[in-house]
Specification:
The chain is α/β, with parallel strands linked by helices. The chain has one domain: Ribonucleoside hydrolase-like (Inosine-uridine Nucleoside N-ribohydrolase, Chain A), CATH 3.90.245. It is built from twelve helices and twelve strands. Helix 4 crosses helix 5. It is globular and about 50 Å long.
C-alpha cells in the first residue's frame, strides 16, 4: 500500500509503556500515515513523555514530527501514573540516545491545525492520554472540525475507575477537556478501561514476542517493569486498543451511545457516563467498544508487533 492511500493520523500520547506499544504499531502499519505525535503530561511529566516519544521513534527509525503539548490539565493539577509505568515512564530498557528532536516553536494545537489543513484527506486523531491538547485544538480551530475523519480514544470506564472511584485516568486527569471533546460533534470511537482489561497479553504471548529479535527484547524488558497487570496474570494493553479500533474493528463489540463527562461532582468529577441504557435521553455522540474478542486481539497484537521489526 503506498503512502497516498494511507490514512493520515495525529497521535496525542503520554508514553507510558502501553503508549509506546501503540506508537510502534501505528507508525509501522501499512494503513496509517502518522503525520504528527504530540506528547502530553499524563503518565509522567511532559519532559519525560517527550523524551520517551523521541526514544521510541529513534529506536524504530521513524522520522515523524514531535510537538510537545500541555504540561498540565486545563484547570487542575497533574496527577501522574509513575507507579504503573515507572519514574521515567518507560523503565526497563536502555534506549539509544535520541536522534529525533521536538519542535518547540509551535503549540500542539497549532501543529494539529497545520497537519489537518494541509492534508488532502480527512485526518484521524488518536488520543491515548489526557485530552487537554485535543480540546485546545477543538476550541481554537472550530473550522477544522469538518476535516477530521474521527477521534479514536482510549479512555473512560463503563463502571468503576482506576483514577477515582468512578473515573478512568485519561478522562479523569482533565475532565473539562474530556467534556469539550464529547460536546464537539466530532465522530468519536472509544475503547474504555474495562475493554483494556479484557485485552490481556498472556504469558505465552509475551514469550512469543520476546523471540522477535531486538524489538521483542525491548518490549519484553518494558513489559517486565509495567504494572498494568503482570507476566503471571497477563498485561493490560490499554492504548493499543485505540489503534486496533482503526485497524481491526471487527474484533470488538461496538455500540452507539451517549457519553457525558462529570466535571462538578465533589466525589465523582471525571466520571464518564457511558449511557448504555439511555437514562440521559441524549443523542448518541460516540461509538463505544463494550467488549473485545480476546483471542483475536492477541493474534492481531502479535502480528502488529511483527510488523514493527
Amino acid at each position: 500500500m503506498n503512502a497516498v492511500s494511507k490514512r493520515p493520523v495525529i497521535i496525542s500520547t503520554d508514553p507510558g509503556i502501553d503508549d509506546a506499544v501503540a506508537i510502534a504499531i501505528a507508525t509501522s502499519s501499512e494503513k496509517l500515515d502518522v503525520k504528527l505525535i504530540c506528547p502530553i503530561a499524563g503518565n509522567v511529566s511532559l519532559e519525560k513523555t517527550t523524551l520517551n516519544t523521541q526514544k521510541i521513534l529513534t529506536f524504530f527509525g521513524k522520522s515523524i514530527p514531535i510537538v510537545p503539548g500541555s504540561v498540565k490539565p486545563l484547570l487542575r493539577p497533574l496527577h501522574d501514573a509513575s507507579g504503573v509505568h515507572g519514574k521515567t515512564g518507560m523503565d526497563g530498557y536502555p534506549f539509544p540516545e535520541p536522534s529525533l528532536f521536538p519542535e518547540n516553536n509551535i503549540t500542539a494545537a497549532q501543529s494539529m491545525h497545520k497537519v489537518v489543513t494541509e492534508s488532502n484527506e480527512k485526518t484521524t486523531i488518536i488520543g491515548i492520554g489526557p485530552l487537554t491538547d485535543i480540546a485546545l485544538f477543538i476550541h481554537q480551530y472550530p473550522n477544522d472540525l469538518d476535516k477530521i475523519e474521527n477521534l479514536v480514544l482510549m479512555g473512560g470506564s463503563l463502571g468503576r475507575g482506576n483514577f477515582g472511584v468512578l473515573s478512568e485516568f485519561n478522562f479523569g486527569n482533565d475532565p473539562e477537556a474530556a467534556k469539550m471533546v464529547f460536546q464537539s460533534g466530532l465522530k468519536i470511537k472509544v475503547a474504555p478501561m474495562e475493554v483494556g482489561r479484557q485485552a490481556k497479553i498472556m504469558p505465552t504471548t509475551s514469550e512469543k514476542i520476546k523471540s522477535f529479535g531486538k524489538v521483542g527484547d525491548m518490549f519484553y524488558q518494558l513489559f517486565s517493569k509495567y504494572r498494568g497487570g503482570s507476566f503471571k496474570i497477563g498485561l493490560n494493553m490499554y492504548d493499543a486498543l485505540a489503534v486496533a479500533l482503526i485497524l481491526a474493528p471487527e474484533i470488538f463489540d461496538i455500540t452507539d451511545t451517549h457519553i457525558s463527562i462529570e466535571t462538578q461532582g465533589t466525589l465523582t468529577s471525571g466520571a464518564s457516563l457511558i449511557d448504555l441504557k439511555g437514562y440521559l435521553n441524549q443523542a448518541d455522540n460516540a461509538k463505544v467498544a463494550i467488549s473485545v474478542d480476546t483471542k483475536a486481539f492477541e493474534a492481531w497484537f502479535v502480528d502488529a508487533i511483527k510488523k514493527t521489526i
